[in-house]
């Protein structure tokens, strides 16, 4: 369980810096290659960007030592996002578009479920809605 302190050792810092640089470079190259239209090369670069983003989340999990269900489901949501990126970029047919959007919506559902599991929404006597975080132990 996460203790609230992430001891940023040198290997983790180096890992985050490497991932940051790779993400910046691959995103710039992807944007350059994708225009005027998607291609096989832009698909590879798009998935490279998504994979680096997912690797960053895994590295953060290891750095924090947080192996909770919450962390697991964040990774599941990111995997849905990765699959959505693939389907939306692979082919521009209607079926792939619908499948990509549905996969992204599954990921969004995972994220929203996690967020809502940590908040308390109540209606006040005056009819206003209040949102407060639920204390976690």
What does this protein structure show overall?
It is a single chain. The chain starts with 9 loop residues before the first helix and ends with a strand. The longest helix has 25 residues, at 10-34. The radius of gyration is 19 Å and the shape is flat. It has helices at 10-34, 40-64, 69-90, 94-116, and strands at 119-123, 129-133. Helix 1 (10-34) runs antiparallel to helix 2 (40-64), helix 2 runs antiparallel to helix 3 and helix 3 packs antiparallel against helix 4 (94-116). The mean pLDDT is 82. It has 137 residues and is mainly alpha-helical. The chain has 4 helices and 2 strands, in the order ααααββ.
How much of the sequence lies in strands comes to 5-15%
Which structural class matches the secondary elements? mainly alpha
How much helical structure, as a percent, in the residues? 55-70%
**Rg, please?**
19 Å
Order of helices and strands: HHHHEE
Count the E strands: 2
User: Kindly, what is the distance between the CA atoms of the first and last residues, rounded to a whole number of angstroms?
Assistant: 10 Å
DSSP helix count?
4
Mean pLDDT: 82
Order of adjacent strands in the largest pleated sheet: 1-2
Largest sheet, if any?
A: 2 strands, antiparallel
**Global morphology:** flat
Low-confidence stretches: none
């Amino acid at each position: 369980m996460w203790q609230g302190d992430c001891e940023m050792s040198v290997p983790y810092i180096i890992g985050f810096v490497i991932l940051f640089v790779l993400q910046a470079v691959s995103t710039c190259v992807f944007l350059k290659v994708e225009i005027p239209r998607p291609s096989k090369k832009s698909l590879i670069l798009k998935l490279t960007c998504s994979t680096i983003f997912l690797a960053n989340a895994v590295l953060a999990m290891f750095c924090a030592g947080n192996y909770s269900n919450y962390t697991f489901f964040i990774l599941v949501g990111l995997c849905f996002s990765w699959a959505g990126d693939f389907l939306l970029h692979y082919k521009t047919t209607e079926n792939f578009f619908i499948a990509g959007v549905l996969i992204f919506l599954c990921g969004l559902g995972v994220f929203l479920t996690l967020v809502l599991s940590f908040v308390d929404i109540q209606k006040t006597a005056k009819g206003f809605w209040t949102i407060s975080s639920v204390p976690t132990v």
